[in-house]
Known about the structure:
By secondary structure, this protein is mainly β. It has 1 helix and 29 strands. The chain has one domain (3-340): Neuraminidase, CATH 2.120.10.30. The protein has a 6-stranded antiparallel β-sheet, with helices on one face.
Amino acid sequence: MNRRTFIGQTAISISAMAVKPVFSDKKEVPFYGHNGRVYRQVKGWGELNASQFPVKDCHEMVQDRKGRILLLTNETRNNVLIYNTGGKLINSWGKEYPGAHGLTLAGEGKDEFLLITDTARHEVYKTTLDGELLMTLEFPEAAELYEKKEAYVPTETTVAPNGDIYVADGYGQQYILHYGADGKLKGWFGGRGEGDKFLDNAHGICVDKRKGDATLLVTDRTRCCFKRFTMAGDLLEIIEVPGACVCRPVIHGDLLYAAVLRSPDMNHAKSGFVTILDKENRVISNIGGSEPVYKDGKLQPMSQQTPLFIHPHDVCVDRDENIYVAQWASGNVYPYKFERV
């Protein structure tokens, strides 16, 4: 039996467990996850000389069409670090984004572009993959939703199939602002409030087309759930993830991935993990977290089980279904890579 087959069969046998050591070359290799979504950490991936290429908060990561992994950090000596999947630094750029927070990749082929939210400058920037500024979405003063610019603190964006841009004001007044591809404001929904249609810590947003028509998945992090809206902002569904203060939703294939910043609540530090949901939005695996359990169709509260992470902030899934985890306020650590087994 070759090593790959052995590892694959071992992963199946432990798929219902969070961690099980497997001996390979006389070294104990822990696996993390459940139900066929099992991973092992690649130690030392992406670590650099911090005096040359430092990071503060590693906020978000994406993979471009060339297969490169782009990391966004609020370190203004190099806001963007570009790696290959082996963890080697290819390039870096950016000195102008002190509040660099959200990183969205959109467009096709040569027309790929980035959207960067800056929580310190209260703006959103469209750039090339090399950092050339293409457009600025400024403070939406015309909406008359804010008394001052500082009340608008955008955390994430997503791009609709028609090119429209949606911005989540996750650290501000909790609105989802809808722009045309030309940067002109078209509308908004959400906002702070107590009803289901309102949001509290609308930290992340993405377009979900897994079941056909495009919809918007929006994080309601304080309430430990995702909320699904129509592209016009009408509430369709609430996806409860009890115990998990989730960051942005990341769609890859039929699955939904998310970093869980803290668990079980926002006052409990050093307790995060990564969660994975299937096409029916049932949690199937937690990396570093407790095994997902449903009773009478209801997901039971989840929590950290293995201290892999402090404050995981984003997940990037590559073409081989390996995952990369960026962390906030975690001692200036570089991203972690986990290989699927």
